[in-house]
Task: structure prediction
Amino acid sequence: MSTAAALIIGDEILSGKIRDQNTHTLAQLLFEQGVDLMRVVVIPDDIPTIVDELRKLSSQYTYVFTSGGIGPTHDDKTYEAVSKAFERPLKLHEQALSRLVENMQNYPDRTLTEARKRMALLPTPCEIIWTPGLWVPLVVVGNVFVLPGIPAYFTSMLEAARSHLVGTPKHRIQIYTHMSEGDIAEGLDATQTKYADVAIGSYPRVNDGSYMVMVSIEGRDRVQVQQAAEEIERATKGYR
Amino acid sequence: MSTAAALIIGDEILSGKIRDQNTHTLAQLLFEQGVDLMRVVVIPDDIPTIVDELRKLSSQYTYVFTSGGIGPTHDDKTYEAVSKAFERPLKLHEQALSRLVENMQNYPDRTLTEARKRMALLPTPCEIIWTPGLWVPLVVVGNVFVLPGIPAYFTSMLEAARSHLVGTPKHRIQIYTHMSEGDIAEGLDATQTKYADVAIGSYPRVNDGSYMVMVSIEGRDRVQVQQAAEEIERATKGYR
Result:
C-alpha cells in the first residue's frame, strides 16, 4: 500500500493571513492515484523544524510532499532545509538556471539578481520533474517532492508528477439521506462491523435542505464497497 | 508567550472529500488573541494516532484545539481518544444529557437513541464551555479544547471560548507592491536583519493585476513594526 504525508511550510497559514488550498488539491489527486494520504503537518518557516519533520515523514511514508518556501526571498527556506535534512549540498543547477534566464526574457525589466539565482540553487544530487509551460523545477530528493506554495503552480506541478505516484485505487460510493445521524448510527455501525475492510464515514450537512447526512463508503474491494453501500442505502432510505 | 496547536481529525479531509475550513478560522482568531499557532496536524479517525498526538501536542503548547469526531456515529472517536490520552473515564454528563434532551424537543420525530446518548458521554472530569443557542458542549480537558468538525459549529463554539485564550497581541502591517519578489528580496533581507524581532513575509500574487507581492510585517513591538514597514514601503515603492 502506498502512503503519503504533506508538509505545509508557511507562517502565513498559521497566522491566518492566507488559507491553505494545496492540501485539498493534493488529497484529491492522491485519492485518484490510490495513494493513502495519512498525515498533513503545517509548520512555520523555521529550518530546524522543517528538517526534523522532513526526516520523520520521509522515513514513515512512501511519498512526502512539501508546499511553500522555494521563492527568492529571505523567508523561503525549503531547499536549504531539504539540503540539511538529507545531506545534499546546495549547488547551482545549470539546467534550472538556464530555464530561469530564458523565462526572464518575457520580462525585459528584470535582471538576474542574486535573489533570483537562489531559485536555481538546489539540493544536489536531485531529480527534477519539469512542468510544461513553467520554468520552475519540481525537485525530488529520495521520496520527497518539493512543491511551491502558490496554488496555481502547486496544482500544475503536482499534475506533472502524477505518473510518478503509484498506488492502488479505491472505490467510493456516496449515499445521501434525509434521516439524521442519531437515527442511522446503529445501522452504520452494524454494516461497518460486517465489512471491516471498507471505511464508512458519516458527514452531517448543516443549514442546507438538500440532505441531512452524506455517508461515504470506500475500499479497495469493489464488491464489498457495493454490498456495504446497498445495505446502507436501504437502511437510511438514501440515494446516490 | 502563549502558543497553540490544532489537531484536525478526519478521514474525509485526507481523502479529499471535504476541504478543511476550521484551521483558517482558528488561525485568525488566535492571531487576534495574540496566541501563536505553531503547528497544525491532520490525522485519520484512528484512536491510537489521536491519543499519541494529543499527548505530544498537549505537553508542548499552551493550548490544543481538536476539530471533528464528536458526533453520534461509529467514526466519531475523539471523546474516547481524549479519555484514553489523559485517563479520564467516559461518563454520562447529566447537564449535557439534559440539554441534548431539551434540544430534541425541536424535532418531535427523534428519540433518545444510544447513539445520540454517546454525545453526552464525556471524559470525566472535564470543564465545559457552553455556547449560546447550541446544546453541544465544548469539552475542555487540561489545555485541550474539543471542538466539532462542522464549520458553523466550530466557529460559534470557538467564539464562545475566545475569552479563555489569553495571549499578547501582535501588530501587523501589510504593504502591497508592483515590484517582483526577485527585485525586492535584497531590501527585505536587509530590513529583516535590522529588525530581528519582526517577522517579514513575502507573498507573491499570481494571475491578478492589482499587485505583484504582498509583504507582511508582524511583531509585538509596535514601533519596530512601524519602522520596518516604512523602510519596506520606501524600498518597494509600496502602498498599504
